[in-house]
């Protein structure tokens, strides 16, 4: 953890040196690739509950996660006025999990009780400013002890002639490998090991429109197709005859989420930000998500943002609680993340972006804190605190 | 539910006086305010991660729709 903080500070010191180079005030003359801004996002997450999937829907879900993400944006203008943007991001999470510790029921401090996840990504965007058109391509990965994911992204963005509307088409592919780690009592000798593939392909269409000088809205529709090993091998399912087996789910899943966003400037100090999403899939899950954020601008450079999010989902057709599945059922899970529930998430954010920068330094452009409390109707609750520090060159 | 949705749209349009106007650059000072962005805030990045792990659905939110185990 200390190493991550030191690395982050060293990186920022480097950016400060880079900031001494003269700036192009127009932004349209050819320039070399240079750093435009750096964002540091850190968070601390803690949850507790009593429906761990590893122990078949009973047992502690206590978990902590510390996440640190550094996101660097570099920009270059070409001779024809084309803007090239490169986003380089790396995230590192360290988490501890009481339920993962129960893959081996005999051990309370096995190797699976904590892990580190590393997720770098790279996104290149070429924008033809005069035509209001952009193309983007990106790659990324996510690595954990038992899970490896590689992803690719391609996007096309076209603004309308009057620059008040924007259409986006995006395609994402995730090629994942799940390490097969069975619950210890289901292992036969040294047969544990190997990996299974899980692939996700997602197409997304969205349109954003400024309606008037106070209001803008957007609509997004995704089509997501998953294939491969969609279960997790160490999730136990206890049957009604007292025996134990592994979670087993179909090898395809199609998801269709449709969402809308709205931002409305009400008067001079209050902004209404709203989000609604409807979701359906072919495992019979349907969900509704509604979120409201109300940034209050105390001054032009300081705002408070209370927020509230309501979420409701039906169960997938393969979910049953501990001891309720029968041996005759081909597909089964006792994962409460796929059970019927509703949840409330609420909290507040504070954003500071002084005109002359934080602490009088114009490069430290913005600091934002946010804390939230999450309550799920299955008695899972969580708290999260996050901070975002922006450095502009 | 359908009636409720229609009522919400009607209320929204009435409330905001939503008629599509072609805005000039100088009329976009509020639209371009950093708080007005039509995407999740950067500071909420990790909130979206935990929600995607703890809830069975996701997507249509300008974010990733896969990657990462969320095994716990």
TrEMBL record, chain A:
UniProt xrefs under Pfam families: DUF3570
Signal peptide: 1-19
InterPro entries with a match to the protein in the record: DUF3570 (IPR021953)
Xref: SUPFAM superfamilies: Porins
Alphabetic keyword roster: Signal
Protein name: DUF3570 domain-containing protein
UniProtKB/TrEMBL annotation, chain B:
Compositional bias ranges of the Gly residues kind: 56-72
Keyword Zinc belongs to the record: no
Keywords noted in UniProt: Signal
Superkingdom classification of source: Bacteria
InterPro entries in the record: DUF4266
Keyword Signal recorded: yes
Signal sequence coordinates: 1-18
Chain intervals for the UniProt region annotation (Disordered): 53-72
Name the record gives this protein: DUF4266 domain-containing protein
Source species of the chain: Flavobacterium aurantiibacter
């Amino acid at each position: 953890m200390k190493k991550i903080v030191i690395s982050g500070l060293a990186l920022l010191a480097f950016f400060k040196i880079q900031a001494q180079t003269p700036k192009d005030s127009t932004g349209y003359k050819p320039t070399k690739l240079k750093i435009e801004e750096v964002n540091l996002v850190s968070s601390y997450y803690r949850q507790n509950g009593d429906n761990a999937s590893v122990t078949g829907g009973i047992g502690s879900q206590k978990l902590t996660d510390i996440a640190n993400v550094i996101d660097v944006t570099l920009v270059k203008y070409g001779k024809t006025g084309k803007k090239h943007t490169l986003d380089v991001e790396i995230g590192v999470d360290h988490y501890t999990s009481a339920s993962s510790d129960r893959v081996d029921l005999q051990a309370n401090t096995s190797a699976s009780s904590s892990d580190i996840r590393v997720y770098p990504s790279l996104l290149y965007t070429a924008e033809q400013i005069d035509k209001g058109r952009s193309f983007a391509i990106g790659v990324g990965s996510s690595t954990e002890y038992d899970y490896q994911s590689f992803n690719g992204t391609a996007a096309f963005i076209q603004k309308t002639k009057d620059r008040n509307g924007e259409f986006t088409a995006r395609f994402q592919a995730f090629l994942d490998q799940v390490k097969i780690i069975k619950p210890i009592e289901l292992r036969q000798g040294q047969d544990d090991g190997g990996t299974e593939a899980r692939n996700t392909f997602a197409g997304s269409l969205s349109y954003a429109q400024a309606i008037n000088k106070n209001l803008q809205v957007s609509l997004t529709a995704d089509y997501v197709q998953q294939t491969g090993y969609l279960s997790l091998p160490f999730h136990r399912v206890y049957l009604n005859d007292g025996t134990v087996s592994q979670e087993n789910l179909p090898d395809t899943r199609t998801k269709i989420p449709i969402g809308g966003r709205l931002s409305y400037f009400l008067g001079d100090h209050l902004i209404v930000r709203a989000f609604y999403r409807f979701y359906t899939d072919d495992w019979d899950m349907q969900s509704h998500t509604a979120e409201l954020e109300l940034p209050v601008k105390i001054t032009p450079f300081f705002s408070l943002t209370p927020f509230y999010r309501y979420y409701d989902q039906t169960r997938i057709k393969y979910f049953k609680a501990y001891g309720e599945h029968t041996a005759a059922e081909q597909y089964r899970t006792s994962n409460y993340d796929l059970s019927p529930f509703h949840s409330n998430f609420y909290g507040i954010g504070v954003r500071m972006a002084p005109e002359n920068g934080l602490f009088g330094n114009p490069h430290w452009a913005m600091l934002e804190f946010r804390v939230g409390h999450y309550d799920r109707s299955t008695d899972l609750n969580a708290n999260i605190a996050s901070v975002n520090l922006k450095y502009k060159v | 539910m359908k009636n409720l949705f229609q009522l919400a749209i009607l209320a929204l349009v009435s409330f905001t006086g939503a008629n599509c106007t072609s805005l000039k650059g100088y009329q976009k000072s509020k639209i371009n305010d950093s708080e007005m962005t039509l995407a999740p805030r950067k500071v909420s990045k990790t909130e979206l991660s935990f929600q995607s792990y703890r809830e069975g659905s996701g997507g249509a939110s300008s974010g990733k729709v896969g990657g990462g185990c969320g095994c716990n």
